[in-house]
Amino acid sequence: MNVWRLVRPYAMVAPSIVTFGVFFIYPIFYMIYLSVHSWDFVSPEKPFVGLDNFAELAGSREFIEVLGNSFNYTLMTVSLTIVVSLFLALWLNRKGVLYGIVQGAIFSPHIISLVSVSLVWMWLMDPQFGLLNWLLASIGLPRLEWLSHPDSSLLSLVLVAVWKGVGFNTLVFIAGLQSIPSELYEAAELDESSRLTTWCRITLPMLSPTLFFLVIINLIGSFQVFETIAIMTQGGPVNSTNTLVYYIYQYGFRFFKIGYASAAGVVLLAVIGLLTLLYFKLLSKKVHYR
Predict the structure, then answer these.
(1) pTM higher than 0.70
(2) Is residue 49 included in any domain, yes or no?
(3) Does the first or last residue of the chain, that is N or C, have fewer Cβ atoms within 10 Å of its Cβ?
């Protein structure tokens, strides 16, 4: 009986641990194994090539452009999503039927699949028949080649990502705002603190755990973008919207260079891991927990 009491907790979590190991841990180690081998996805032989795949990545101008696209996309998406969501949360953090309806409307894109979102936005951004260009033309502005021009294609994908992600972030921010004790604001009113002082001394510090959480999950999610690129641009035009995950897909499942694609996957894993670690090291001490 005593043995069972000791073993029971581990037995209860064993299915989850096994599932996590099989579908998450094992693929990571197998990717690292493939990154130092050459494989065409068909041949049973996997010749060892050492660091040749990584050397080929480092010497590839295309990969450097893809890496730059990934950083630019992530920086723009995360910063815009966080800023817009925070302002919306400050506005919607009130009681009332109207505010509840607006919250539901803003959150609704989050539950729509990215495939559906991408198809809708492809129509909206159509250079000839799209609604966005029709609106621009109706107010006398020139039409834009949203997805077909290198200068605007990545920004167009950022717009789609922000539109889809802002609802979830807004609701999380609202939850964070509502968890701040009202006594702090009452004390600030008694001290006749200005709105700016209240924001800097109370709201922002108390909201820092929520902000810390949202930045990290948006950072990781933005580096893993795939569906919108695969459906809307396929990495074009002229490689302007190609990011790491789609690049890995191209070389792994189109060109069947599994070793090379796995090496790019290791780079992606290292980039996300290093950025996450750096973010925790630099900002975790500035997070104020009650």
Answers:
(1) yes
(2) no
(3) N
* Structural domains of the chain, count: 1
Residue 255: inside a domain = yes
Question: What DSSP letter does each residue of 67-98 carry, written as one string?
Answer: HHHHHHHHHHHHHHHHHHHHHHHHHH-S-SHH
Token digits of residue 194:
């200005």
CATH number of the domain within which 157 lies = 1.10.3720.10
176 falls within a domain: yes
Dihedral in degrees, nearest 10, Cα atoms 112, 279, 55, 253: -10
Kindly report, residue by residue over 224-254, the tens digit of the pLDDT: 999 999 999 999 888 999 999 999 999 999 9
Report if residue 133 sits inside a domain: yes
8 Å CB contact between 95 and 173: no
pLDDT tens digits, residue range 36-55?
999 988 888 889 998 999 99
Angle between the N-to-C axes of helices 150-178 and 114-124, in degrees from 0 to 180, rounded to the nearest 10: 130
Q: Is the pLDDT of residue 270 over 80?
A: yes
pLDDT value at residue 1: 53
Maximum Cα–Cα distance across the chain:
80
Name the percent of the chain lying above pLDDT 90.
55
How far from chain centre, in Å, is Cα 135? 29
The CA-based angle 254-259-260, given to 5 degrees, is: 70
d(C-alpha 124, C-alpha 23), whole Å: 37
Domain that holds residue 133: 65-286
Position 203 confidence tier, pLDDT thresholds 50, 70, 90 = confident
Cα–Cα distance, 275 to 218 (Å, whole number): 12
